[in-house]
Amino acid sequence: MIRGKQSIGAVRRGFTLLEMVVALSIFSVIGFTLMSAVRMAHQSHLAVVAATVENIDRREASARLIEELASANSATIEVVSLAGVNDSVSFELPITVAGDSTWGVREESLSQVPAEQSVAGWRVRYAVVAIPVNGVAQNSLVRQVLDELDVVRMQEQVVDGVRGGALNPKGFGVVVAGEMWELTLTTEGNAEGSEGRSTVFHVKTRN
Fold it and tell me: Which pLDDT score, from 0 to 100, does residue 5 have?
């Protein structure tokens, strides 16, 4: 027996080229799978956030519109419904001018003088208009304040990503259903991963 030599059954040390290639392939597959899982989780998170934001916007818009339409002067409610175009609805609200109750609009943003914040004969209108967003026109439901000549004195965006009027259902529709007003608000989805939703609500005026 010669000292210093390994026996035939000794364990071979190191890796062959083939073993290295197989190991790297396995790690590549695992890494790709993990990256795909992380990307899908991120996209799902964005979709959930987008849907949540849209739901909040829609609820806030619906709540304000319902409250204002319910308290409006029913004699002044005017709906414009044209083929291929989203509807619009306008009306006067109860206000107080110089201590007298009348109909019109009260908006703090109109003036810093409290006495000038309530104007008789003016109206609120909800309508869908095209507003440029990053160079692309996007339909948005807006709330406008109109003076006695129908000039827009104030406008605020309420819900973005509203569907076009030629679609079914249209983005914003207003119809009379018995003693109730039926309003439909449908969005296309204003963010990646959001599908858009349709909400139908009914309002009965108190005046």
Answer: 54
